[in-house]
Fold each of these.
Amino acid sequence: MPILGAQGSTKGPAGAPTIGTATAGNASASVTFSAPSFSKLPITSYTVTSSPGSFTGTGASSPITVSGLTNDTSYTFTVRATNANGTSAASSASNSVSPGLSWSAWTLTELDAGSGKNVSNVMYGGGGTFYAQMYNVPGSPAGNYGQATGYTSTNGTSWTARTLPSAQQYRNPLYTSSIWVIPTDGTYYITSPDAATWTARTYTGRNAWNSCAGAGTFAVGGYGGNGCNTSTDGINWTDRTMADSSAWAAAVYGAGLHVHLTASSGTLYNTSPDGITWTSRSTFPVTGSWYNGGWNGSVLLVASVGTSTYATSTNGTSWTQRTLPIPSAPEAQVYSPTGGQFTIGTNGSTTVYSSPDGVTWTARNLPSNTLGGMRASMGGPNKMITPTNYNSVASITFS
């Protein structure tokens, strides 16, 4: 009678596979292995398991990808084989790898050759569309930043010029509820369902340095005063009153709140869940000019211009003081939905820093002529795009 589990028996699971090599990807790893030296019954599947986390991937053959990993965390992997009689013992552990985004393969695209114009900011909206706003370089002509051209792209490398209703000094493009809105520093603003065809509109004028959109609501404040315009469709607007008057200079939507930041040195900011009811808050941990903000889906991050101080929060009301890896003058922090990355840099430097949680930062290199410190950059589902200090954009695809 055959002995259960012996190599000559048809009973019992297979032997353990032989581990190969683990290769890191974005929030994932690919693991190679060899089949067991014996299995009297056909192997129906293999299962690769991570340590830590016990994340698994299954497949019929090598290699197998394990997804759901945390970037910048070290993992090893084991593999087991399954046949009709059960699952084998685990292989030995693989080499250690740390998943992460690849920041090396940037593509530069010139949008308006020889024009002397700059790209001021980039926004990602619905339908997989990126919108890039142009502006005139100061002095061409002097004091005239207005520009009547924008560009759209679905891949970050092929761009189409779009004609706007008139030349204006447009502020940050906004998107929610299937409509684009771009405010200016006055009563004039434009809307579009697709970022291609734009309509000129008017509302109560604001010096619209601070504006954000989220959960179906646009909230456009002013640099100075306590006025705010809100809309759920980008067309019909209501005047609102914020809790405080201040030099409102930036805004971010996150943790279910519109968070409006002031350039006046202090700890003051205002929040609103709907753009209608505003609450005065002074819970920033230190005095600062809180000018930049970002949201990565679970953490809010705001930075004080001219210092290395920043703060993070998961609810928009309780904040933890932190120190950036750069000495001063953070230019912007942005969020790419891929990997939940915050990114921050300074003017004049091609080195930026990225963080998946707003706590741990890693130095990254940008293309040589991307000297804007990633200002006003934006990420789509698997892409980040940043303006350069010229009339070009740099894009990178994360796989």
Note: Confidence is low (pLDDT under 50) at residues 1-8, 139-143.
Amino acid sequence: MGEYLERVEEAQPVLNMGFMVGHTAAETRGDGSGLGRWDRVGRPDHRHGCAPADVDHGGRARLRVIAERNHFDGNGDPVPSAASSVEELVALATVAGELPGTALEFIPGHADILTRMSLAAGRPINWNVFLPNAATATEKLAWSDEGARRGARILALTYPGLAKTLVNFRYSAPFALLPGWDKFMVMPVEEKIARLSNPEERARMGALAEQARGGPLDRFSRWEDLVVVDPRSPHSMRIEDRRIGDVAAESGMEAWDLVCDIAIADRLMTSFRPQPGDDTPEDWEARIATWNDPRVVLGGSDAGAHLTTLATWDGPLSFCHSTAPIRRCPWSKRYAG
């Protein structure tokens, strides 16, 4: 990556470009080999070994750590940081702090660990991603206040709009968080198809998902409201951009059965778009109020990454579109997309 960044500097692009080095990338050696989890950091005989070089990448990159259990790498394995202890993550932050020009990002957020990592590195740390609504904005921004009282600087990275999520049965963080679905979502494709094809197993999974109704994952378990996106089989292509509930009613099927049949026919490749949440006037008031808050950084576009699961590449456009109708665009806030 150091060579790539040198080419960027030579080109002197108009855009202000910043890069995050993922924990998995730092953990895995260039030849693809590596330890199954982060064991170099936090051990006296390895902390000053290859970890600083892996994190550094020429001294111009930042370190991004994902500690959620439902994040997987390109091989379908859990990311190394998901298996790391807090002590290991703090030691990793210490290594990053030994290098010039580094910063930290953490997924998800929690006040204590964010504070400890910021203090260990002597760097600000942002947590990804802050999606404020009327109920959560004040509570989660309090993490920055708690960290500041201990000498840390914690920033909330927020996407300035409604994040448009896509889900599918091959890989989907929201599906992995549904009650009882975590083990299913890490199974091989053929085993997933076999389970979805079994009537009893299908009914069991549908019942488990219904337990999420009324909670934070409500919209991911309302099969009737999902919209078919990027279908692969001829049958699914005929219902692209249509709501599952409407198609199910026309076919005399249950919405959950239709979702399973589509997924099986397309070998789990078809994605579905849930209805966006947090779209009330009160949610928008709370959201816009955070955009000039010094504890918040606007961004979260991920430079167009995650196109199969998340549409946040339009961050700057979403920012302008969201604020134009009410003429309250806080231009004083720098956008860090």
Note: The two ends are 20 Å apart (CA to CA).
Amino acid sequence: MQLRQLGTQGPQVSALGLGCMGMSGAYGPSDRQESIATIHAALDAGITLLDTGDFYGMGHNEMLIAEALRGVSREQYLVSVKFGALRDPASGWVGFEGRPAAVKTFLAYSLNRLGLDYIDIYRPARLDPNVPIEDTVGAIADMVKAGYVRYIGLSEVGAETLRRAAASTWWANRLIIAGGTTSASSSDAVSIACACSSSVASRAPSSGVTLRPKLAIAASAIAGPNRNDSESIRTGSPPARICSIEFTAPVHS
């Protein structure tokens, strides 16, 4: 498995990451044991980056990952967690929360569900229109200082937001990834077309930030049939229903 460095001072991770959202009902029913087997197969294949969100299955996904990682060396994997999306008991989406107090509360719950002492990459899933990005990311920076988070990420942001976040004080070197939904065609699987604006793609390298598109394979035709089995990880045909595979693009100086 090829490795990529996140940002200019971030960790080395596998070029492919395992997105775990589909293991908690996002694309229909999922099988717990098969999901755990898929995570194990990914780790065995050299994948080191696992992506989740605290709102995937209202915490179910984090607890599932915790179960799968029980007994696995902490040095073998990194966990990226998105936070902030608000949901109701019927699984509806009711908003986003990015206030500093909420950021720290979400983090406390995620650490408990995952059974971890720290989260490798922590990032807001969306922007809170009522809270400056500096406040949201600044709260994560407080948690970096406290040892509960290693690196800061962003998701679904524009170039100006990325610029403001990267321009902030000491923690700018901890800002390592900007995620965006992607699409690709089976005729050109290598050329990933980012659904986020081209200005973000061009801004990320100059800010020392790695652009990590999501759903690059699972949401497109190159994923192949919707197979829900861990063996497809080993054979190179990722199961679209159970996981997404994420590309980490290298940062160019």
Note: Residues 154 and 178 are 5 Å apart (CA to CA).
